[in-house]
Amino acid sequence: MINMIHSRIVAILLVGVFLTGCATTKLNNENGTYDPLEPMNRAVFSFNEMVDDNVFEPVARGYKKIMPDPLELVVGNFFSNLNDVVVITNSILQLNYESALATGARLLINTTFGIFGLIDIASDISAASDVNLSKRNEDFGQTLGHYGIGSGPYVVLPFLGPSSVRDTFGVAVDSFFMDPVTQGVTGVFLHNVDYINSTAVRIPIAAARAVDTRAQLLDVEKTLEEAALDKYEFMRDAYLQRRTSLVNNSSEEK
Questions:
Q1: pTM of the model
Q2: CA distance 247 to 124
Q3: How far apart are CA 64 and CA 81, in angstroms?
C-alpha cells in the first residue's frame, strides 16, 4: 500500500513538473498575461457563468437568507480551520517555518479552545497582541512557484473557474494529499475510521464548503458586475496578479 502511494506521488509530481516546465517556454505578454487558450477559456467561462447564474448563485443567496450571520461566521471559521492543514503542509514544503509555526499554533488554538475551529480565537489573539497568528494562504501551486516553476498558460476550469497549468496541478495535489475535506491527511492517518473517510460524509461537507465560499463572494460579484467592462478579462488579470503576489509573499497576511 505504501509503495503504491509513493508511486502515485512520484508520477503526479513528474507529470506536473513536466507540464508546467513546458508551459513556461513562452512567457507573458505586455499586460503580464499569457492566455493562448483564450477562445476555449471564454467558452468555459460562459458555461461557468450560466451554471452559476442558474445553480450556484441562487443556492448561495438562499443559504444567506436562511442562515443567521453569526452561524454563517461559525461555518466559515470551521472550513478556514480545516484549510490550515493545507497551509501548514505547503509552508513546510516551502521551508517557510515562520508561517508553518504560526499556522500550527493557529490550528491548535482554534481546534481546541475554539471548539474545532468554530471560533477564530487565534485571530482575536493576533488583533489584541503582537503575536501574529493571522490567517495565511499557502497552497501547492504557490509551492511550485516558490521553486521557480512558472504559472504557464492561463486556463478556466469548468465549475472551478480561473486557474493556470501550474495551479491546476496544485489544486489536484492539495485535494488528493492535503485537504482534510476531499482526502488529505485523514485518508492517510485516519484511513481506518470509516465514517470519516466515507464519501457519504465527505461529499456533503465539500458541498457545504462550496456553498459557503460562494455566499461569501456575493458582495464581490455585485462590485465586479458594476466595475468590469469585460468580466472575463477583469477576472483573468485580477487572478494572475493575485497569484503572483501570493507566490512572492508580497504581504504578511495573505
A1: 0.79
A2: 26
A3: 21
